[in-house]
Each structure stands twice: as C-alpha cells, then as structure tokens.
Design goal:
24% strand; single chain; 5 helices; globular; five-stranded mixed beta barrel
C-alpha cells in the first residue's frame, strides 16, 4: 500500500499483459501509460534477440491494453540495425510501428556491446544503413506523436507539475499528464510537485499548452 497519488509503471514485456494485470488500472492512481518493449517488428530479428514474443503477440497486447484502459498512451523502444537485419526485416518493423501508432518511440541504432552474443554475429549493419532506417522511424514517430497529442486537445487531464520552464515568461511550469503528454502552463503560484487538472488547448512542436484549472 502507498499514499502516493500517482503511480507510473515502467517497462513491461508484451507477454506480461493479461486481463488480471489490466484490471489493476481501475485504480485511478495508475497512469494510463504503458512503455511496452518492442525492439523489432520482425520475428526473425526478435528470435535472434532472444525475445519471448512475436510481432503478432505484441500487437495483440497493444489491442488488449487499448480496450481496457481509456485514453492510454503506449510508448516503445526500437533498435534499428541489429546484426543481420534485412531491408524486409526493417520494413516489417516500420509497418508494425505505423500500425500501432505509438504515442512516442525511443529509437536507437544497434551498437556492439562486448560480451554479448550479438557482438559475435556476422552481417553487422553499416552505419549509413542504420542512419537511414533510424531517420525513417524518427519521422514516423513524430507524425504519430503529433496525432496522439492532437486527440486530447480541448480535454482536461490531471497534470503533475515538475518545474518552472527554463526559458519564457515568469510563472510558466512544465509537467506531464497522466497519459504522458508534456505540457506547459502558467500559474502565479508555485506548482512543483502538485497534481492539478489542466485543459489542453494548443499544440506546439513538442508539447501542449495547457490552462491550469486547479
């Protein structure tokens, strides 16, 4: 038990998602945000990574979450250029990411880590190919992130205010909604550490301008 007003679950694996786990989100303190490991949308690459799920199982887990948790955001880690990743493997990853429409994606180019099995794999991917694939996914991520935030314009969400904005007018504060949208709001009083409702009304390049309601 805890008296904390907000609980955000960190990284989960697709195979951990089931109805019993999702019932916990009936507690409003649990944030409607799931960071669900992906890494690749290619079954062949997932197998070489020794992941214990398939691309189809991943998509099924996403659908289960969205049916159970209203307004949920789903974010993911993706690795491009894993040894042996073919163009078809990458297109499968791109297609899955496009199908899911993540609220945000953390995209990393594969780099050799000494002592790991993958460090000994042949068919390492050249840097130019990694860079090209990474930029395609970054562009896709931006498009879906923008679309996700746009869905909530005009609605009110609880925001945990974190700190004053480093640049801009005095009284500007940044924070995160329960479903992981970065917002900026104005208040003449200190807000750090408080949770207040806020109306999301305008989208900028990477965050939402919000009206503090509490």
């Amino acid at each position: 038990k805890t008296d904390l007003l907000r609980l955000r679950v960190s990284s989960l694996q697709p195979q951990e998602i089931d109805a019993g786990l999702l019932r916990l989100w009936s507690d409003s303190r649990l944030c409607p945000h799931f960071h669900l490991a992906l890494q690749s949308g290619s079954d062949a690459v997932l197998k070489r990574m020794r992941r214990r799920y398939t691309a189809r199982q991943y998509v099924d887990s996403v659908e289960m979450i969205r049916e159970a948790v209203p307004g949920v955001s789903i974010t993911a880690d993706v690795i491009v250029g894993f040894p042996g990743e073919t163009e078809d493997d990458f297109e499968q990853t791109y297609g899955l990411c496009d199908e899911v429409g993540f609220a945000d994606m953390h995209i990393f180019p594969y780099s050799v880590r000494p002592g790991t099995s993958a460090a000994h794999f042949t068919a390492q991917i050249d840097p130019v190919t990694k860079s090209s694939r990474m930029h395609r996914l970054l562009s896709l991520s931006q498009r879906h992130s923008t679309a996700f935030r746009e869905r909530f314009l005009g609605t009110s969400r609880p925001v945990l205010w974190e700190s004053p904005k480093e640049a801009g007018r005095s009284g500007d504060w940044t924070g995160l909604t329960d479903n992981y949208i970065r917002v900026i709001g104005h208040s003449p009083r200190p807000l750090a550490g408080e949770i207040t409702p806020a109306r999301l009304w305008k989208q900028t390049e990477d965050l939402i301008v919000a009206q503090v309601l509490g």
